[in-house]
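Hi R.,

As promised on Friday, here is the backbone we talked about, encoded as structure tokens. Could you run it through your design pipeline when you get a chance and send me back a sequence?
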């Protein structure tokens, strides 16, 4: 897939070519929220929210959630799920995430990342880190599952664990960064669970 435009992603959702959509929340997020390390509730932005599974998980855990995706079909599906479950602490907005800085500067306590970093053009990764820093409040946190596979091509585009740290650590403190032990079978060994906090 060489075309990373919103039109191309929309077409993949419409044709059912969306292997990144697990159909349920990512197990590392489920278990994080059940653990003693669970973050306190707050306002959280979900980048590349897709069908909304992870976003809805956090909404049901008491967070105020805004999910962003630039594929309309994904947004429609996520909104339908929220409506069916009668969840009112969540909204899904059709946006290009790189247009969010002016509208949402310092607007969130958290950003949630799962299969968005690996889907953007790797040349945009530094800009992605800056985007997160801009829309988080002081000492806000990124909660992430990074898909750190080493295969060529993409999306999903590969990245090494140390590269992830190199991108984020100039502006963020590392709270948690470890291999996920509870990934789905086809992603075992390729996922890292991370919490990075905006540096004071």
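Update: got your reply. Pasting your designed sequence below so it's all in one thread:
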């Amino acid at each position: 897939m060489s075309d990373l435009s919103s039109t191309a992603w929309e077409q993949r959702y419409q044709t059912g070519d969306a292997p990144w959509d697990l159909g349920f929340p990512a197990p590392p997020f489920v278990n994080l929220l059940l653990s003693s390390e669970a973050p306190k509730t707050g306002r959280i932005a979900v980048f590349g929210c897709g069908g909304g599974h992870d976003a809805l998980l956090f909404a049901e855990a008491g967070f105020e959630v805004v999910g962003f995706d630039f594929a309309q079909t994904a947004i429609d599906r996520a909104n339908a799920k929220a409506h069916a479950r009668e969840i009112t602490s969540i909204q899904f907005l059709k946006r290009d995430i790189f247009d969010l800085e002016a509208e949402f500067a310092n607007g969130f306590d958290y950003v949630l990342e799962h299969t968005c970093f690996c889907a953007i053009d790797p040349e945009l990764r530094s800009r992605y880190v800056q985007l997160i820093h801009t829309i988080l409040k002081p000492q806000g946190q990124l909660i992430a599952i990074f898909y750190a596979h080493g295969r060529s091509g993409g999306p999903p585009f590969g990245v090494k664990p140390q590269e992830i740290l190199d991108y984020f650590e100039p502006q963020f403190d590392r709270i948690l960064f470890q291999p996920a032990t509870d990934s789905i079978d086809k992603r075992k060994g390729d996922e890292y669970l991370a919490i990075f906090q905006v540096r004071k």
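One thing I noticed while checking it: Residues 6-15+26-198 form a domain with the Rossmann fold fold (CATH 3.40.50.150).

Thanks again,
M.
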